[in-house]
Amino acid sequence: MLDQIKGLHHVTSMAGDARRNNEFFTHKLGLRRVKKTVNFDAPDVYHLYYADEVGTPGSVMTYFPFPNIGKGRPGVGEVGTTVFSVPEGTLPYWEQRFAEQGVTGLTREEKFGEKRLTFTGPDNDSFALVEAKGDDRAPWVKGGVPGDDAIRGFHSVSLRLRDGGATEELLKFMGYEEADRAGNIKRLAIKGGKGADVVDIETLPGANVAGLGAGSVHHVAFAVENREKQLEVRKALMDTGYQVTPVIDRDYFWAIYFRTPGGVLFEVATNEPGFDRDEDTAHLGEALKLPGQHAHMRPWLEQHLQPLDD
């Protein structure tokens, strides 16, 4: 069993309208946009990062907003719900805030002894807030949400699978342990993590396969401290039979990718070098930052990318 993985690093999803996506995460959820850059493979498309003040691993929600993209089709073989952690007793605040701001899909429920509020994003993305005990991570406090109520980072992701057995074994190999189960959901967690520690496997044997589109999670990334630890994980996965990409420089972290038995795309990302490598912390996410290979496109991109802010 591996011990290098320290919980979630980021979750990357697809969106339609970039401005609407930015407004939802920065104004409705009160997160900070910590990076405004472009997709490495499609530089005419933004890659937007939302997180806490500095983009701490385990707090980073990222999006590829493709104009005119079709809607995603929920199903198995994907991340179903992305769950954020909030302090105990704050769900009434969030329920009122969301109702006032027109957020849809609001439902209060309790799972695994935790109070949660489910809601949908602008592309019918599936989200939830969970009142997490003892989460002492520092929130972003300048996003319009009081610090005592603000999102701390991720709590968990759920995987929707026809058969969860092989993916469960993979997660246990990656250092997760079974923590609980309820009905068709099995909960796995990293011991001694930093808050973003949980993966739920929801088994849906008769469900249709998901279709990637707006509102779909593209991949979920797990955190390792540095490139040395990442290479150890890569070798262990390959020795186990997984087809893993070479290490790829994503400017703010180094990444490797592989497909799980259930069809979900996993990434293992380094905590280094971080989002302040090309911007001062006080001004994260303000300027358009471009990967080196796309720097020559700046004049065209600045004219053609949709403005995000008023």
Give your account of this protein's structure.
GO terms for molecular function: dioxygenase activity. InterPro entries: cNMP-bd_dom, Extradiol_RC_dioxygenase, Glyas_Bleomycin-R_OHBP_Dase, Glyas_Fos-R_dOase_dom, VOC_core. It comes from Ollibium composti. This is Ring-cleaving dioxygenase. With 310 residues, this protein is an alpha+beta fold. The chain has a single domain, classed as 2,3-Dihydroxybiphenyl 1,2-Dioxygenase, domain 1. The chain contains 5 helices and 16 strands. Strand 10 and strand 11 form a beta hairpin.
Assign the CATH topology: 2,3-Dihydroxybiphenyl 1,2-Dioxygenase, domain 1
| Overall form | globular
Order of helices and strands: EHEEEEHEEEEHEEEEHEEEH
With strands numbered from the N-terminus, the spatial order across the biggest sheet is 2-3-4-1-13-16-15-14
The figure for the number of domains is 1
Radius of gyration over all CA atoms, rounded: 18 Å
CATH architecture: Roll
The proportion of strand residues reads: 35-45%
CATH class, named Alpha Beta
What structural category characterises the helix and strand content? Answer: alpha+beta
- Strands, total number: 16
Instruction: Give the CA-CA distance, first to last residue.
Output: 49 Å
Query: What is the overall number of helices?
Result: 5
The CATH homology group name: 2,3-Dihydroxybiphenyl 1,2-Dioxygenase, domain 1
What proportion of the residues is helical, as a percent range?
10-25%
The major β-sheet equals: 8 strands, mixed
Would you tell me the overall average pLDDT? Answer: 97
Q: Runs with pLDDT <50, length 5+?
A: none
